[in-house]
Amino acid sequence: MSYTQTLLTGVVGALLAVTAHGADIAGAGSTFAAPIYTKWAGAYQQAGGGAVSYRAVGSTEGVKEIMESQVDFAGSDAPLSDDELARNGLLQFPMVIGGVVPVVNLPGIKPGELILSGRVLADIYLGKIINWDAPAIAAINPRIKLPDTPIAVVRRLDGSGTTLIWTHYLAQANSEWKSRIGEGTSVRWPRGIGGRGNEGVATFVQHLPGAIGYVAWDFTKQNHMSYTAMENASGAVVQPGPETFKAAAASADWSRSLFPILTNEPGANAWPVVGATYVLLHSTQNKPERGEATLKFLEWALTNGDQAAEDLDYVPLPPPVVSEIRTQLHARVKNPSGKAIAGE
């Protein structure tokens, strides 16, 4: 069974049950982050922690559910503003970094063989480039015989942090996209078929000849999808993978903010479409036992979760960032009487 089928049959949302020490907790949100939360949950339980469930419903739905206190934590790839966090009594911290990758269905063209640029991608999604043998694509792929095949554009149907990362990049790379479409978790797409979640986009791309879409790198690998190389901000052609994701993350200035968007970062080896995935939780925990259990899980993931992240080709956070997150979690998550809840 493929990873997509696994997600579609609800394994990500299934409760991973073991003997619990303290309250069981539930999270929901980002499909981009679903693989790592699922892997962390299993390892945490094997280490003696409580039961953790995570539903891959998309960043927008996850944020809605944490705002309505339906879950103990939410995963989102679209960071909320300071005003939004304060208005809803939420805290937000990055957990890992990952890449978003163009995927295509072009038989005869090997994974990583086709090269695309941000400007070309935006023109495809704008509907200005409609065939794969268009001059703009041929110009950066002189060694490939491109098919005279219509391009079937696939994009997200649901509100998505992956879409925010993608559209933020397109707005940086193409001024017409920036002025006409802009960026966000959901935009007024000029064209395309909508898939729900990373798995929905992956499924459409796999079944539509000539299709192009964008998904998290882990979905690309698990489903053996054909991906493209990219021209980055320095003009270099780079392949997606841990090293180019790390190169992009290394350029981020974490001292200014814990919520950077890591697209179009400088560096000859930097993948141009990279972002962090964030966890959101309430600053005041009305159910302190569940709040403490949530902090224990997050503390465990920050301390012990790097190898699992690397196994899935995410990039762990820099140690100084982890230290700052740990300090803030312990100081700012409180019970209704205003006392800090210990997470360890």
From TrEMBL:
It comes from the Bacteria. Keywords: Phosphate transport, Signal, Transport. Pfam families: PBP_like_2 (PF12849). InterPro entries: ABC_phos-bd_PstS, PBP_domain, Phosphate-bind_PstS. GO terms for cellular component: ATP-binding cassette (ABC) transporter complex. Residues 23-303 form the PBP domain. CDD domains: PBP2_PstS. GO terms for biological process: phosphate ion transmembrane transport. The keyword Nucleotidyltransferase does not apply. GO terms for molecular function: phosphate ion binding. The keyword Signal applies. The complex is composed of two ATP-binding proteins (PstB), two transmembrane proteins (PstC and PstA) and a solute-binding protein (PstS). NCBIfam families: 3a0107s03, PRK10918.1. Belongs to the PstS family. Part of the ABC transporter complex PstSACB involved in phosphate import. PANTHER family: PHOSPHATE-BINDING PROTEIN PSTS (PTHR42996). This is Phosphate-binding protein PstS. It comes from Paraburkholderia xenovorans (strain LB400).
